[in-house]
Amino acid sequence: MRAGFCVSGQGSLFRAAVRRRADTGAEPALLVLETKAATDLDDFAAANGVAIVRLDPRDRAAFDRGLSAALAEAKLDLVALTFDRIIPASLVAAHRMINVHPSLLPAFAGNRGIERTLESGVRIGGATIHEVVEAVDAGPIIAQAAVEIAPHDTVQSYGARLYTLLEPLFLQVLRWYAEGRVERDGRGRVVVRGARYDALPVVPALERFP
């Protein structure tokens, strides 16, 4: 499975996908970066044989054209987003995409998912990986991870604990797509064929990346 990755930040999940590509069956074929993404990602991707495109989002029309051209040229089976940019509707329609969101959707959709989770006073937070539709953070949910919140938590402490579940969850989702097990039911919901849905903190349960 040829996978593309669109990254706005440090690219930790992309790096994990590169390191574990033999385990996921997802071959990283393209990395799209926006200007503020970590500067060492270009060298990391090049050293691992991944094509790189870095785009400046200040000119939205040029950004969208560059993104469209890069995705089309790479001939991808799946695009994974850890991206702060809205994807044009035409690209959402043309590509199978998943998005990583740092909250338990549908709660705290949009920006600052971690901060808003902590500010709200909820006792359980988490992360969601969902398929991308035109509406922001509204696509069918593939998998979620739940994380307890302590009164003393900061963005850094909570975020670090969340990431320990998010990385294996992300790798597992890539594996499910590579295996062709991700389907839609009669109500348009995502279902992973043969997965276990009966236990927290990660649902469906991790299989290959415990």
3D structure, described in words:
There is one protein chain. The protein is built from seven helices and ten strands. With 210 residues, it is α/β, with parallel strands linked by helices. The chain folds into two domains: 95 residues, Rossmann fold (3-Layer(aba) Sandwich); 96 residues, Formyl transferase, N-terminal domain (Rossmann fold). The strands form two sheets. Strands 3-2-1-4-5-6-7-10 form an eight-stranded mixed sheet, sandwiched between helices. It is globular, with a radius of gyration of 17 Å.
Q: What is the CATH class designation of the largest domain?
A: Alpha Beta
Shape type = globular
Instruction: Calculate the mean pLDDT score and round it.
Output: 97
Enumerate the strands of the largest sheet in spatial order, edge to edge or round the barrel: 3-2-1-4-5-6-7-10
Radius of gyration: 17 Å
CATH architecture of the largest domain: 3-Layer(aba) Sandwich
**Termini gap:** 22 Å
Number of helices: 7
Helix proportion: 25-40%
Low-confidence blocks of residues: none
CATH topology of the largest domain: Rossmann fold
Helix/strand-derived category reads alpha/beta
- CATH homologous superfamily grouping of the largest domain: Formyl transferase, N-terminal domain
Total discrete domains: 2
Main sheet: strands, sense, barrel: 8 strands, mixed
Strand content: 25-35%
Order of helices and strands: EHHEHEHEHEHEEHEEE
Number of strands: 10
